[in-house]
Amino acid sequence: MASATVVAPAALTSRDVAAAPPMPDVLPPVKPRRGFLGFLRRNPTIVAGAGLLLVMLAIAIFAPLLFTTDPTALAPARRTREPSAMYWFGTDMLGRDVYSRVLYGTRVSLLVGFSVALLSSVIGLTIGLISGFVRWADSIIMRIMDGMMSIPPILLAIALMALTRGSVQNVIIAITIAEIPRVSRLVRGVVLSLREQPYVDAAVAAGTRTPVIIWRHILPNTLAPITVQATYICASAMIVEAILSFIGAGTPPIIPSWGNIMAEGRALWQVKPYIVFFPAIFLSITVLAVNLLGDGLRDALDPRMAKRL
Amino acid sequence: MFAYIVRRVLATIPVMAIVALFVFSLLYIAPGDPAAVIAGDQATPQDVERIRESLGLDRPFLVRFGEWLFRILQGDMGVSIFTNLPVTTMIQQRIEPTLSLMVLTLCLAVSIAVPMGVVAAWKQGTWIDRAVMGFAVLGFSVPVFVVGYVLAYVFALELDWLPVQGYTAFSNGFFPWLENLILPAIALGGVYIALIARITRATMLEVLQQDYIRTARAKGAGQRSILFLHALKNAAVPIVTVIGIGVALLIGGAVVTESVFAIPGLGRLTVDAILRRDYPVIQGVILLFSFVYVLVNLAIDLLYTLFDPRIRY
Fold first, then answer.
1. CATH number for the domain that contains residue A255
2. What is its main location (chain A) (predicted)?
3. What is the pLDDT of residue B263?
């Protein structure tokens, strides 16, 4: 994007230079903005994604202050009210305020998304590093990862959830296990290609010990692709969490998560579609925000990958 | 060539063995006591003990795995805890709707996504390209069930063009079958279309810069023949690969789509099994889907040679 304003020297052949009129001296020098603001200016996608995500984060943190009531308070007398000034998003079949439930649901979704992204990155990074450096472990680890990757991630999470009690913590563990193989493979690939780099050879020749090489040369170079991957994992984890809760294999029904709200609204959706649609809109916007952030980070941090997609 | 096919087919055996081992060991990986969870909150200690025995959790892991694998190889996936029917029978009863949905979605998605990606690459930088890329981001962000409910609300409830829910068997005629499946297929196809369109566009952009495309233009080949004959053919390998990998999305999404549209398929079976804590059924479905996924990707590996004769093994 930044290169669009500058003429790439590679595009000029000797003949072009000979034919081109001399450059006027008055052309202002191209001065790319530096610093954090400049970075944001060059990456509007990151700004859009991060901005939306910050709004969602604020909603999650300040949910009690945003005119909500107790999201679990039952009021059988006021069941399935249409959205109104009193109940902004209406009430569900137990008379609970859908607006409050949706706002509190933001907490579950973000907690699961961020936790899974962080945990699977850290564990995947460790496995990927071991696999990239320990020859005999590599083939064993990669065969196991191949097997795990052959099980569709949602099904793997469903199976794990069927064997445990529904809780936010178990949902996070189940989705993390399902996401680990992808990160491990990514890190292993990066490590294997980095090991061939001349500066790593030089470090080896200079007698640098392996842990130091990993810390100083390998780790910093895996950060960019892992950050990008982590945002995508965060987005997919939020969707999987909603799916698990929707089909009854996720967070327990008393916790207001978007998937749970939709699951409860399912029976009534033909007559009271708003119970399903409000959490659906919030979920879609949040996932969109994270995906935009991921696309922006990919373009900014990992130009090679950006070109391929 | 033949030797390659044999080698490639044989190579899937260890992968499937690891899948089986992994699916089997989930019982041991899961935190807590699975027998107590499956038995439920009202279970007596005797119930828990009975389930522990029927799952074989009271015997050594390897012995149990050996027996289980031996029975799987004979086509015996165990018996449902809830209905006492063999899992294979239950799967057979439910397989048609799921297979229909997935095949229809696959055909629909490929025939929409590939032209979309090709046109986006051709018109790179224009509003068409941006619209396709925007659609792709949306496709990744709006979950299957959200698309499903919106489609059902608009086209079935409001406009009344299509049935809201349910499934009609293929033997009752093509059009009734299609009528029931078209909305679920579009909903399920969203992410898949986004994925394929993106890869198609990226690969086509790369291919369109090659010398042979310039040669084709120079000799006067038409735009359509350049795009679909010269370029798409050379972009086929990555596209076909992603079509295969994306089948995992279809499988996962089918579980949800069937819930939204009340389709009595394997996904519905899985969801019912979760609510009843009927683990043998869940295990059977997962094993089946994983094997299908491995076989699809095996088939695609073998297809490479068709698309790219340069690939010699």
1. 1.10.3720.10
2. membrane
3. 87
Tally of structural domains, chain A: 1
Q: Per the CB < 8 Å rule, is A150 touching B19?
A: yes
Containing structural domain, residue A292: 52-58+86-301
Instruction: Give yes or no for a contact between B198 and A308, defined as CB atoms under 8 angstroms apart.
Output: no
CA A67 to chain centre: 29
Q: Is residue A21 part of a domain?
A: no
**Three-class secondary structure assignment of B136-165:** HHHHHHCCHHHHHHHHHHHHHHHCCCCCCC
pLDDT given for residue A7 in this prediction: 42
For the segment B158-182, the average pLDDT, to the nearest whole number, is: 77
Considering only CB atoms, which chain A residues are within 8 Å of B140?
235, 287, 291
Tokens 């995947």, residue?
A124
Q: B294 in contact with A at a CB cutoff of 8 Å?
A: yes
**Pick from B31, B145, B248: which is nearest to A246 by CB?**
B145
Residue A143 lies in a domain: yes
Contacts of B13 (CB under 8 A, 6+ apart): none
pLDDT, tens digit, 9 for 90 and up, residues B64-105: 888 888 888 887 877 787 787 888 888 888 888 898 899 999
CA distance A304 to B313: 29
Question: What is the mean pLDDT of the segment spanning B263-275?
Answer: 86
Domain ranges of chain B: 2-73, 87-307
Cβ within 8 Å, pair A148-B22: yes
Contact yes or no for A288 and B22 at CB 8 A: no
Instruction: Give the SS3 label for residue B73.
Output: helix
> Is A63 among the domain residues?
no
* pLDDT exceeds cutoff 80 at B212: yes
* Cα separations in angstroms, A171 against A158, A165, A241, A267, B32: 9, 9, 7, 24, 14
- Whether B28 shows a pLDDT value over 50: the answer reads yes
Pick from B273, B140, B101, B229: which is nearest to A163 by CA? Answer: B273
Is A295's CB within 8 Å of B198's CB?
A: no
CA atoms within 13 A of residue B158's CA, in its CB half-sphere: 8
Whether A297 contacts A45, CB under 8 Å? no
- Alpha carbon distance, N-terminus to C-terminus of chain A: 15
Does the interface predicted TM-score (ipTM) exceed 0.90?
no
> Across the interface, do A262 and B157 touch by the CB < 8 Å criterion?
no
Q: What percent of chain B has pLDDT over 70?
A: 96
Cβ distance A162 to B138 less than 8 Å, yes or no, reads: no
Regions of chain A short of the pLDDT cut 70: 1-34, 66-68, 73-92, 94-95, 302-309
* Residue A169: closest C-alpha in chain B: B31
User: Residue A162 is inside which H or E element, if any?
Assistant: helix A153-162
DSSP letter, residue A4: G
Domain B87-307 falls in which CATH fold? MetI-like fold (1.10.3720)
Q: Which pLDDT does position A176 carry in this prediction?
A: 92
Nearest-CA distance A210 → chain B (Å): 31
A33 occurs within a structural domain: no
Q: What is the pTM of this model?
A: 0.83
pLDDT digits (tens, 9 = 90+) for A206-246: 888 888 888 888 888 888 888 888 998 999 999 999 988 88
User: In A56-104, which ranges are E strands?
Assistant: none
